[in-house]
Amino acid sequence: MYQVSRSTHSNTLTGWREWVSLPDLGVDWIKAKIDTGARTSSLHAFDVHEFEREGEAWVRFRVNPWQDSQDDAVVVECPVHDRRAVRSSSGHAQERLVVQLIIRLVDREVLAEVTLSNRDEMGFRMLIGREALRHGYVVDPARSFLGGRAPREARRRNRGRA
Fold it and tell me: Retropepsin-like aspartic endopeptidase domain spans which residues (predicted)?
């Protein structure tokens, strides 16, 4: 059983890229870049539509867990946690919706703020930033997939980019 970590007292080792899960979304495998240069985590989302539910702001969006593939797309609805101006690595500022998601990273689960953005042109569908990593992760930039790899059939769906 996985525990949601709110502690900063663990030293779980992670590589610079990992297969992660988003259990609340039903996404078992998505390849993520671990990025200590980014404050907030980011998830590739498309068909993003805001709506109101019982007086609260919500968002509906789709997630494609596999790079260059529409297979296994998931439709997600969740509350909007925040809106934030985020500056990209190219220096461009953009307002993004922020949701809170459970991320399973190297056999632990953490609650993280995640911005929704179009990452079609990026090498990874997800980026894990410092706010999620502060829950006790140590990054070894020379290593990858310390939490294990997705099953071979899942990696094939990801166009062999495992």
Answer: 14-146
Closest-CA residue to 28 (of 83, 69, 66): 66
pLDDT one-digit tens code per residue, 64-82: 887 766 777 899 999 999 9
Q: How far apart are CA 162 and CA 159, in angstroms?
A: 8
Residue 31 contacts residue 23 (beta carbons within 8 Å) = no
- What are phi and psi for residue 19, nearest 5 degrees? -85, 125
Using the predicted structure, report yes or no on whether residue 162 has a pLDDT greater than 70. Answer: no
Give the start-end residues of each E strand in 16-162: 17-22, 27-34, 41-44, 46-53, 56-63, 74-79, 82-87, 93-105, 108-117, 126-128, 137-140
